[in-house]
Amino acid sequence: MHEIAHQLADLFLKALPTVFIVFFFYLILRTFFFGPLLKVMQERDARTRGAQKSAEAAQAAAAEKIRQYEDALKQARAQLYAEQDAARRKLLDDRNAELKSARAKAAEEVRVAKERIGGEVAAARTEVQAASGKLSDEIARRVLGARPSAGPATGAR
C-alpha cells in the first residue's frame, strides 16, 4: 500500500505543473478572452434590448399617428358630408321655391284666364240676349207674317 501511495504522490507531483499551467491559462483566457467576450455580449444584449424598446416606442408612435390620421380622415369625411348635405338641402329649398313660384304664376295665369273667359262669357251672354230679342222678333214676324217667295230673307237662311 505504501508503494501505491508513493506512486500517487509521484503522479501528483508530476501533474502539479500541468495543473498550474492549466490554471494559469484559465486565468489568462478569463482575463483576456472570456472577460471582453462577456462584456461585448452584455453590450450587445443591452443594445438589442434598447433597440427593441426603441422599436416598440416607434411602433406605438406610428400607431398613434395612424389613429390621428384616421380621426382626421373621419372628421374630414364628416365635414364633407355635412357640406354635401347643406348643398343638397339648399338645392332642394331652391327647387321648392321655384316650384312654389311656378305654381303661384300658373295659378295667377289660370285666375286671369278665368276672369278673361268669364268676361267673354258675360259679353257673349249680353250679345246672345241682345240678339235673342231680334231673333225672336224675326221668328215671330216670319211665323205670323207672310212668307216672301224670293227675297232677302231666304238668303239669310
In words, what does this structure look like?
This protein has helices spanning 2-144, 152-156. It is an all-alpha fold. The chain has one domain. The longest helix has 143 residues, at 2-144. The radius of gyration is 63 Å and the shape is rod-shaped. The model has no long low-confidence stretch (mean pLDDT 89).
In brief:
This protein is mainly alpha-helical. The protein has two helices and no strands.
| Count of individual helical segments | 2
Strand content: under 5%
- Tally of structural domains: 1
**Unreliable stretches:** none
Structural classification: mainly alpha
Output mean pLDDT.
89
Helix content: over 70%
Order of helices and strands: HH
Largest sheet: none
What is the number of E strands? 0
Q: Compute the gyration radius: what is it? A: 63 Å
> What is the global morphology?
rod-shaped
Ends apart, CA distance between termini: 181 Å
List the helices and strands and how they pair.
Elements: H1 2-144, H2 152-156
Using brief descriptors, characterize the structure shown.
mainly alpha, 0% strand
